[in-house]
Amino acid sequence: MKSFLINWSVVNRQWSAGRHLFYLFCCTLCFSACTPKVEKLPIFGERELNGKDTVFHTIAPFQFVDQDSAIITNAIFKNKIYVADFFFTSCRTICPIMKTQMLRVYEATKDLPDVLLLSHSIDPEYDTVALLHDFANRLGVQSNRWHFVTGVKDSIFKIAQTSYFATALEDKTEPDGYIHSGAFLLIDRLGRIRGKYDGTKDDDVNRLIEDIKKLRNEQ
Amino acid sequence: MNNSQRSAFNRQWSIGFMTMILSIGCSGKGPKYQQYFAQGQTLYEKHCSNCHQRNGQGLGLVYPPLNGSDYFEQKFEASLCLIKYGIQGEIIVNGKSFNKPMPGVPSLTELEIAEIATYVSNSWGQQHDIVEIHQVTAALNKCHQ
Predict the structure, then answer these.
(1) Is residue A35 in some structural domain?
(2) Chain Cα centroid distance, residue B7
(3) Does the CB of A174 have a partner CB in chain B at under 8 Å?
(4) Binary contact (A137, B59; C-beta < 8 A)
């Protein structure tokens, strides 16, 4: 009888230790479930240290005119996520494919007021405000969500090369007179590049649409 | 099987065989058609599909569709011409206005235009006959600039 009692107390002690371990396990599970490890998108470009703060590459100040003759500057995109690209309306090589793909991004982000699109014309002399207005209308898109901009050619080429790291050059030997990349650039709320995608490929644009969702969840 | 039975049997076979050849020839789905279609697809994807899309549906009101296009059906000769020479100004396709200049591809031969037209006329559920070179010649003679 005595040995039986002692046995019971040992069992109780062991059980209580096990129970503590079990609670700890549950808490860990809850904790890890409540703070899922979100893979953050990379930040592109050079970075500098300013004291203790890291300064990242951001899109330089710009000023262009969109299809509604509205002045478009960085202020429009403050605290917004946006996707930028470079094209021209008379292009018959990769631009039509890019516009088909950008239209997919437009449809996928239709209900997200904090996501905008910005298409720069690299042939701003031909792509006037009126022409861009007609082009946007023909695509059936809203001008407050998708800005088609024109401006000083050199400024557009410069911002493409130095801010967005996208190729945009005049080249008379090309069939349409320009060399330009089909890249879509994903820009975050702070004006930093967070993704680069091939705007002529379905798969890459699918990845962009997923990355936009990830970026929106970032604090 | 006597001689008369044999000759009747042969006759039936030869009639059947002739019918088969004729039906293949008339439906335009013989080797020549296959060749035009395949070449036409390659050329379509090189020169046309960027704008008109691989599925022929075009894009908004910027690039008109070729899949189920009343313009292509009703203005067939004009369509053959614009493949080579391009087109400017407004056109109405399926009741909708399109008005972006389309550059032509002047380097295309009459055979290549026939191949592209054969591919377009027989893709995405559309079914028509092969487009022959002489049809292209006739069309181009009318629109030659």
Answers:
(1) no
(2) 43
(3) no
(4) no
Residue labelled with tokens 């631009």: A95
Give the type of residue at A157: F
- Distance (Å) from the C-alpha of residue A109 to the closest C-alpha of chain B? 18
Count of pairs with CB atoms under 8 A, one residue in A, one in B: 32
Q: What is the CA radius of gyration of chain A?
A: 26
Q: Which residue of B has its CA nearest to A98?
A: B50
DSSP label at residue A164: S
* CATH, range B28-143: 1.10.760.10
Q: Do A139 and B51 touch (CB under 8 A)?
A: no
CA nearest to A101 within chain B: B59
A29 within some domain: no
Q: How do residues A187-202 score in pLDDT, each as one tens digit?
A: 999 999 999 999 999 9
For chain A, the domain total comes to 1
Per-residue pLDDT reduced to its tens digit, B11-61: 666 665 555 554 544 454 799 999 999 999 999 999 999 999 999 999 999
Closest by CA to A216, choosing from A113, A85, A84, A118, is A113
ipTM score for this prediction: 0.71
Q: Which domain holds residue A171?
A: 58-217
DSSP class of A77: G
